[in-house]
Amino acid sequence: MSARRRNRATGATPSGVTRREFITRGGATLGGLALAPALLSSGSAFAAAQTDGPGGKVNVLNWPLYIDKKSKKDFTKTTGVALKYNEGINDNNEFFAKYQEELSQNKSIGFDIVIPTSWMAQRLIELGYVQKLPLGDIPNAANLSPGFQNPLWDPTGEYSLPWQTGITGIAYNLEVTKRELTSIDDLFDKKFKGKIGVLSEMRDTMGLMALSEGVDPATITFAQAKGAFKKLEKASDSGQIRRFTGNDYQDDLVAGNFAACIGWSGDVAQLLIENENLRFVVPDEGGMRWADTMLWVTPSDQSAQVAAWMNYFYDPVIAARVANYVQYISPVDGIKEELAKLDPAAAESELIFPTEETQSRLKTFGALDSKEEEKFDNRFAEIAGA
Q1: CA 386 to CA 375: how far, in whole Å?
Q2: Pair 293, 160: CB distance under 8 Å
Q3: What pLDDT was estimated at residue 270?
Q4: Beta-sheet pairing, 260-264 with 57-61
Q5: 241-245/260-264 β-pairing
Q6: β-strand 260-264 against 362-363: which pairing, if any?
Q7: Are the CB atoms for 249 and 199 separated by under 8 Å?
Q8: For the residues 319-345, what does the mean pLDDT come to?
Q9: At CA 169, angle to CA 166 and CA 325, rounded to 5?
Q10: Residue 106: closest CA among 298, 295, 296
Q11: What distance in Å separates the CA atoms of residue 130 and residue 269, rounded to the nearest whole number?
């Protein structure tokens, strides 16, 4: 893994500021349409009350700055379940390397719930490191948006519930490009030579490269990806690409060092306050959708407490409060009305509520077996100079 690599959830910039510390600063555009910022509300439509919950405790491992403080406190007040919450996931591969030995031996890793990205969730499911969710005790699981039911990473829908989701597309600085961008091929416009950034997250970058070649990332094989890799390599070798970047692409985008780059929708929403010329677009060829998803790891025996956690955060009132803080796409259906009570502008944001047309153009990177994944990772690292 490249030392330059950052994960979207932590994304420390050179100034030490993480992407989620930009929450609620700005707005963005989706398909060129200006969107208003969603301001963080200090209030809540939810009135916490002590109930006869299961008691006990639950230990949760998540990404940094991925939940509002009030919801954490109200969870314990509402359910009676003591919460140990850790923001220790900084990178999917790093997480796997740290806990694989204990998980493979069915030993406790100190957590009941972990929230990796979907492709890592699939690996953990296939390796038998997670348990079927106690869905009978999670009635609010019925609020799972239809688009996330029986996903590629969990075809039976028995092992996971998404925490938050987002979009990978093209971010650009209109002051530098002097025109609107609509296509992945705009990244290869010679006018932007030396001013293009691509993500060091393989699935995000190669997902868009595949789409530009007419290949579906949901079913892609290494053989099918050869044209996309060649296209990326040519752009890198010619100097079209300024650099492969983690979340620190934000600085170059704001400063104008990047005319355009592959980026994440939420970043632009948060950075527009620094530069009103920023835009985000789901390209004509399509964009990528990703999800960070909740899993119940072995050998945790905290079934009632795990159910209480997931049921609480799948309440539309609570899910709306979290969405208002993180500004990602919530996997919980029916939050728009609740979000409108907190922030009407957020309830109208196409970044939080993509249109059906936008959603129809989003793809999830398909499953790769270990041999295929190694080929993808090695080829990508070769091009990126990692």
Answers
A1: 14
A2: yes
A3: 65
A4: unpaired
A5: unpaired
A6: unpaired
A7: yes
A8: 93
A9: 30
A10: 298
A11: 34
> Is the CB of residue 252 less than 8 Å from the CB of residue 151?
no
Global pTM reads 0.76
Return the residue matching tokens 């997931």: 310
Here the tokens at position 187 are 């990244």
Q: Which tens digits make up the pLDDT trace of 45-56?
A: 333 344 568 999
Q: Which of 279, 260, 262 is nearest to 207 (CA)?
A: 262
How far is Cα 67 from Cα 217, in angstroms, rounded to an integer?
A: 30
Residue 235 tokens, joined: 């752009």
- Convert the chain into a string of H (helix), E (strand) and C (coil): CCCCCCCCCCCCCCCCCCHHHHCCCCCCEECCEECCCCCCCCCCCCCCCCCCCCCCEEEEECCCCCCCHHHHHHHHHHHCCEEEEECCCCCHHHHHHHHHHHHHCCCCCCCCEECCEHHHHHHHHHCCCEECCCHHHCHHHHHECHHHCCCCCCCCCCCEEEEEEEEEEEEEEHHHHCCCCCCHHHHHCHHHCCCEEEECCHHHHHHHHHHHCCCCHHHCCCCCCHHHHHHHHHHHHCCCEEEEECCCHHHHHHHCCCCEEEEEHHHHHHHCCCCCCEEEECCCCCEEEEEEEEEEECCCCCHHHHHHHHHHHCCHHHHHHHHHHHCCECCECCCHHHHHHHCHHHHCCCCCCCCHHHHCCEECCCCCCHHHHHHHHHHHHHHHCC
Any idea which of 35-39, 156-160, 294-298 has the lowest mean pLDDT? 35-39
User: Distance between CA atoms of 167 and 101, rounded to whole angstroms?
Assistant: 32
Q: At what angle do helices 202-212 and 370-384 cross, to 10 degrees?
A: 90
**Do 300 and 48 form a contact (C-beta atoms < 8 A)?**
no
Q: How many angstroms separate the Cα of 65 from the Cα of each of 74, 198, 297?
A: 17, 24, 22
Tokens standing for residue 216: 């579906």
